[in-house]
Amino acid sequence: MAKTTRILIPSDFTLESLDFVSQSIDESTADQIDIILVYGNRNSTSASELLGIGLEDQLDVLQSASFLKACSTMYQRYQTRKLSIFADILGTDNGHYLQHYLKGQSVDEIIIPSGYNYKKKTRNFFNVADALRNVQHQIRPTVSFKEQRHNRKSEVLLAVG
């Protein structure tokens, strides 16, 4: 049984950000790929914001119908690669938390979209790419860390548009 490669990619859940996902899949040699897209949104300390607002509620706000449709299209395009894509929100940029998160999620690779300008969709947004760069040298040596330049036209926008 082939080992699954788990790749973490910072994202703002826009169509443009999915170009890096497609590029990462194309460049990977793994037969099975799990992609974790993470958005940075510091946890609120407001009692009214903490009550009843879970991960799914936050993701519903952050992910557009077009984004979800593009993810579905990617599943179909890469079905022979046994692809899974899931989204998560990091609530802090604390280095120790990030290290534990990466270990707990069994991340094999971190791919940072180089030069990408993330869309700030929430008041408490933080740049996950910068947070990961800050702890890069503290991450387990078994985790590959690379900056990825965007090197093609937006295939995702063309496929969904």
Topology:
Layout: E1 4-10, H1 15-27, E2 32-41, H2 47-50, H3 55-62, H4 65-77, E3 83-90, H5 95-104, E4 109-113, E5 125-126, H6 128-134, E6 144-148, H7 155-160
Parallel strand pairs: 1-2, 1-4, 2-3, 4-6
Antiparallel strand pairs: 2-5
At a glance:
By secondary structure, the chain is of the alpha/beta class. It is built from seven helices and six strands. Strands 1, 2, 3, 4, 5 and 6 form a six-stranded mixed sheet that branches.
Please provide a written account of the structure:
The chain has 161 residues and is α/β, with parallel strands linked by helices. The protein is built from seven helices and six strands; from the N terminus they run E-H-E-H-H-H-E-H-E-E-H-E-H. The chain has helices spanning 15-27, 47-50, 55-62, 65-77, 95-104, 128-134, 155-160; strands spanning 4-10, 32-41, 83-90, 109-113, 125-126, 144-148. Strands 1, 2, 3, 4, 5 and 6 form a six-stranded mixed sheet that branches. The longest helix has 13 residues, at 15-27. The radius of gyration is 16 Å and the shape is globular. It starts with a strand and ends with a helix. 27% of the residues are buried.
Largest beta-sheet characterization: 6 strands, mixed
Strand content: 15-25%
Helix proportion range: 25-40%
The outline comes out as: globular
Number of strands: 6
**What number is the mean pLDDT?**
86
Report the radius of gyration as a whole number of Å: 16 Å
Instruction: Give the termini distance in whole angstroms.
Output: 37 Å
In sequence order, what are the helices and strands, one letter per element? Answer: EHEHHHEHEEHEH
* Uncertain ranges: 156-161
Structural class: alpha/beta
Counted by DSSP, the helix tally is 7
